[in-house]
Specification:
Strand 1 (23-29) and strand 2 form a beta hairpin. Strands 1-2-3-6-5-4-7-8 form an eight-stranded antiparallel β-sheet, with no helix packed on it. It has one domain (21-128): Domain of unknown function DUF4426 (Immunoglobulin-like), CATH 2.60.40. The mean pLDDT is 90. It has one helix and eight strands. The chain has one helix at 2-18, and strands at residues 23-29, 32-38, 46-55, 66-73, 82-91, 94-101, 105-115, 118-128. With 129 residues, it is mainly beta.
Length: 129
Amino acid sequence: MKRLVMAFMILLVAGGVVYAKDYEMTKKTGDYTVKIAIDKNPPVTGENNIVAEIKDAASKNVTDAIVVIDYGMPAMPGMPAMNYKAGASLKDKRYAATLNFSMSGPWAVTIKITRGGKTQSVKLNVDVK
């Protein structure tokens, strides 16, 4: 009986890891509301897929913008600053890109939205494991 209970507990824990929810947040910048999702929660060293759904003031999906994602880690003792850029492509009314975090620690991510000659940015911090 004890083994059966232990096996059941292991299944519950493993199932929770397999079905962990994406890292999600919603941010506002100007007239835009940006819903951001990263496929790993918490983000991990290596490739992480990020998706940004952008809505205007009328809650309509923005599909005619140029979206670029800048991400980096500040300089630390014995290590220079790291800065990377990823262009996002439109897929199913959402902008998708892949971020490749080269090491664990705090990373700053900036999503730049250019539309109609104006650029607005959404900033977030992620702790990469």
